Amino acid sequence: MKKFLKVFAVLLLLVLVYLRIEIYPQLDIITGFSAKSVASGHFIDGRTLETIQQGDNDIDKVDWATNAIDENEKSVLSKVYGLKARKAIYREGLGATLINDDFDVTKPYNVPKRSLSQSDLPYPYGNGNPIDTSFTELDALQLQKAVEAAFDKEGEQNKRTRAVVVLYKGRLVAEKYGPGFRATSKILGWSMTKSLTATYFGILQKQGKIDVMKPAPIAAWKNDERAKITLNDLLHMNSGLEWEEDYGKISDVTKMLFTAEDMTKPQIDKPLVGKPNATWNYSSGTTNLLSGILRQQFKTHQEYLDFWYSSLLDKIGMNSALVEVDMAGNFVGSSYGWATARDWAKFGLLYLNQGNWNGTQIFDPSWAKYVATPTNTSNGQYGAQFWLNAGGKFPDVPRDMFYCSGYQGQMVAIFPSHDLVVVRMGLSEEFDFNGLLSGIVGSLKKDHKE
Fold first, then answer.
1. pLDDT confidence of residue 446
2. Cα separation of 7 and 19, whole Å?
3. pLDDT tens digits, 270-297
4. Strand, coil or helix: what is 400?
5. Backbone phi, then psi, for 309, in 5-degree steps?
6. How far apart are alpha carbons 227 and 393 in whole angstroms?
7. What is the pLDDT of residue 17?
8. Which in 36, 47, 48, 404 has the greatest CB count within 10 A?
9. What is the biggest distance separating any 2 CA atoms in the chain, rounded to whole angstroms?
10. Contact, 390 vs 231, CB < 8 A?
């Protein structure tokens, strides 16, 4: 018995050491993710705590957290077995922000001024009902089957699709939602937000206020090799800067999203590990650095906040859209953009039409070509904050497709050769996009632009 107790004690000690070294440091990330997720889902889209915990937070380790919603304070407190409590607060117009103990919740803050479109034009160019239409070159039955195949059958939980929206020739031709979701549901795009962030540089360049081929305006880089990094390099994720993008552990990206007060700074401090314009490395830190550079273009914080809506989101009628901010008031351009599936489709349509929105040119047509041109050393996978199919990632899908992509399988796919936009929102990284997209494209009969 004594020998057994000694062995047991040693094993217990090893377990405790493992928990202290490996697990305890992760609790900040776990409770941070959980608090932020619950606050956003509940206060932005009106989801219940149970729905969020069973859906958005049904992730390994994140599901350890217990969460409490304070409706009066509009906040969420999350803990793991009473440890590492983290709080996220919701502020109208700014969304949910994960805060630390030093954050002054009584301090006044700026809120973006919105100009929401009240156009009664049919969707997508207005807020009216979509025009019922049929195209002779569209196989409606095949399209319906392709869309329905993206959703789980009753009792299944594999595909976990929440929404699919299909625009063809500027018209809504297919739309379907999963249980609990509808056309008015606001859904987090995760890294699809990166494509929004890039677009503001295209808008400023059209206005003659910025040149993306010039060096990035970062004072800390002036006196070393990083001075050679251009905005173009940052937009293409091709700066050569060190960054670890791993959501399964404590890494650069998880520390930034769930512990940093100012998310525009972490990438600034990273050294070069490659050469600018020759070392592609996907980095959410780079996109948030770009958000900080955008903020530098304006004299006041209020102007920066307003610009994201007045120059793009409100201009194309993405009335549901909301981009959340960090503790320092920066838009989290890497990850925290929300909108309905229909409004995400509007963004795709803007790029399909090369920046023209119902007669108004938001950015120059050359910008659409720019974001869809492969980055050096990305093997045809990546453009300027957009993903590409130029390298054939989806073998049965046209190579000219370019797309916004986000965690857990968010996608806005743009097909210039087919006058087509497809949006899929969901919760599965393993979703069969090749099957969905090829099925939809296959429903278009003899419609390929030679």
1. 63
2. 18
3. 999 999 999 999 999 999 999 999 999 9
4. coil
5. -95, -50
6. 34
7. 43
8. 404
9. 84
10. no
Q: Exposure of 183 by Cβ count < 10 A (0-12 exposed, 13-18 middle, 19+ buried)?
A: middle
Nearest residue to 266 via CA among 242, 233, 239: 242
DSSP one-letter string for 153-205:
PTT--SS-EEEEEEEETTEEEEEEE-TT--TT--EE-GGGHHHHHHHHHHHHH
Are 359 and 350 in contact by the 8 Å Cβ rule? The answer is no
Q: Is the dihedral of CA 358, 359, 363, 369 positive or negative?
A: positive
CB atoms within 10 A of CB 208: 7
Nearest CA to 107 among 263, 328, 296? 328
Residue 415: CB atoms within 10 Å? 25
| Mean pLDDT within 382-399 | 98
- Rounded-to-integer distance, Cα 430 and Cα 407, Å: 11
pLDDT for res 10: 55
At 4 the pLDDT is: 64
Q: Which residues contact 412 (CB under 8 A, 6 or more apart)?
A: 192, 195, 344, 345, 347, 348, 403, 404, 421, 422, 423
Q: What is the pLDDT of residue 137?
A: 87
- Give the residue-averaged pLDDT of 106-131: 91
Closest-CA residue to 111 (of 397, 364, 296, 302): 302
pLDDT for res 175: 97
Residue 216 to residue 118: CA distance in whole angstroms: 38
- Give strand pairing partners of 403: 387, 413
State how far Cα 1 lies from the chain centre: 57
pLDDT tens column, 400-434: 999 999 999 999 999 999 999 999 999 998 999 99
Residue 51, φ and ψ in degrees, nearest 5: -60, -45
Which string of DSSP letters, residue by residue, matches 349-384? HHHHTTTEETTEESS-HHHHHHHTSPPTTTTTSB-S
What percent of the chain lies above the pLDDT cut of 90?
88
Residue with tokens 């350890």: 64
Q: Which residues contact 274 (CB under 8 A, 6 or more apart)?
A: 240, 281
- Distance CA(349)–CA(327), nearest Å, equals 32
Cα Rg of the chain (Å, integer)? 23
Does pLDDT of 449 surpass 70?
Answer: no
pLDDT higher than 90, residue 15: no
Number of H helices, E strands in the chain: 12, 15
